[in-house]
Amino acid sequence: MRLVATKTIREGSELAKTIYNDNGQALIQRDTKLTKRMLKRLQHLGVTYAYIKDAFTEDIMIKPPIPEELRIEAIQMVKTSFADIQKQGTNKNPYLFEKTSNRMADMVSSIVSEVKNQDEVISILSDILISDDYIFNHSINVTIYALALATELKLPAKKIEQIGLGSMLHDVGKVFIPEPILNKRNRLTNHEFDIIKTHSEEGFNFLRKSSAVPLLVAHCAYQHHERLDGSGYPRGLIGNEIHTFGKLLAVSDVFDAVTSNRVYRDAMLPHEGLEILYSGADSLFDREMVEAFRKTIAVYPNGITVELSDGRVGIVVKQNKNLFERPVIRILKEFDEDVAPYDIDLAVVLNVMIVNCDLSVADKI
User: Fold this and answer.
1) What NCBIfam families does its record include (predicted)?
2) What is the pLDDT at residue 205?
3) C-beta separation of 286 from 247 below 8 A
4) Neighbour order of strands in the sheet with 313-318
5) Beta 305-308 vs 354-356: how paired, if at all?
6) 121: which of 162, 236, 259, 319 lies 20 to 30 Å off by Cα?
7) In terms of pLDDT, which residue wins out, 49 or 350?
8) What is the 3-state secondary structure (H, E, C) of 48-116?
9) What proportion of the chain, given as a percentage, has pLDDT over 90?
């Protein structure tokens, strides 16, 4: 299978992975031949890329970090839980929220088990799921990224469970933001953005009053927008004033935000998301966190088309552990000429490197 920009997919191409909505309903089934209407619909929904079938890449497999059924179940649970919290308002029923937090803790345990048993790095999380409610999909994606990062950092099991629950609840304060502002598609005014920014403190104040969650979980909501140089919010904390969980969540939150499909912009690819993080390392983000995070994700996901420094073009076949920027490539073109496919391992062939993997590169094949 190949990862291709939806705006460049040719009519008649066969879909290689089923596309679901966040209710678990299949919108377009695997093996479906895509029509012009389907492709326009995907673009309208903000789907930047999709996997299609290709005769030269039938053996390329994409393994999700957690089963899609579990991910959809987790999204639905967060959606239901946030709706319940919104109905209760700040005068929450402690018993009801205790039940909510217990369900979330159980879900975190299930996700932790899946992430720890995952031999492969995390590929793109927004590739086959269309969500009408970004916040819920984002909450689960951030949880997966944060748990993978916490595991890479070798944090104690108890702290990993706490960061998982904190990640799932990091945006809970958004349920207290007026929906017209929260869901506004046009540019926010300065006043509206100031209201959006209150979600960190609103979430913290809600969670800290609950005996059902540790205070550190509340601080995940409080500090995930803090930045090392003091430019973050709500408190403008600097350096080590920010808790480890806050630094960890900042990396996971920003990476998912920029690599997710949004109605107002295309999703970035993982290497572009990493460039955002590295550009802010030491000033906005903890460099150790960024370096560790890079080891948990596929910088160049399986199935993506890449161009090498010597002009060859091919598709990523598989990852090399601990050398994720140098995967195995299936060469399909040399000097703009089609060639019989063959694989090269960039961990072995060191005199070439990937110079381009914009989704438009796929047009060269």
Assistant:
1) HDIG
2) 92
3) yes
4) 337-345, 328-334, 313-318, 305-308, 354-356
5) antiparallel
6) 162
7) 350
8) CEEEECCCCCCCCCCCCCCCHHHHHHHHHHHHHHHHHHHHHCCCCCHHHHHHHHHHHHHHHHHHHHHHH
9) 59
pLDDT > 70 in the chain, percent: 92
Q: What would you measure as the largest C-alpha separation in the chain, in angstroms?
A: 67
Q: Left (φ > 0), alpha (ψ -120 to 50) or beta: where does 340 sit?
A: beta
Each residue's pLDDT tens digit, 263-280: 556 778 899 999 999 999
CATH number, domain 2-52, options 3.40.50.720, 3.90.340.10, 3.40.50.1820, 3.90.105.10 = 3.90.105.10
* Count of Cβ atoms closer than 10 Å to residue 116 Cβ: 12
Confidence of residue 27 (pLDDT cuts 50, 70, 90): confident
Q: Quick one: tokens of 48?
A: 């930047």
Give which of 2, 101, 144 is closest to 60, Cα–Cα: 2
pTM for the complete prediction? 0.89
Q: Where are the alpha helices (DSSP H) in the chain?
A: 36-44, 68-88, 94-116, 134-152, 157-168, 179-182, 190-197, 199-208, 215-223, 244-259, 270-279, 287-294
Residues 6+ apart with CB under 8 A from 30: 15, 16, 17, 18
Residue 233 CA: distances (Å) to CA of 12, 46, 135, 236, 259: 48, 29, 19, 5, 22
CB 302, CB 61: distance < 8 Å: yes
* Cα separation, 98 vs 213, whole angstroms: 8
Confidence of residue 89 (pLDDT cuts 50, 70, 90): low
What single DSSP character describes residue 232? S
Candidate CATH numbers 1.10.10.10, 3.30.450.20, 1.10.3210.10, 3.40.309.10; the one for domain 68-294? 1.10.3210.10
Tokens standing for 207?
């969670």
- 3-state class (DSSP) for residue 223: helix
Domain ranges of the chain: 2-52, 68-294, 305-364
pLDDT at 130 over 60: no
Alpha carbon distance 215, 165 (integer Å): 11
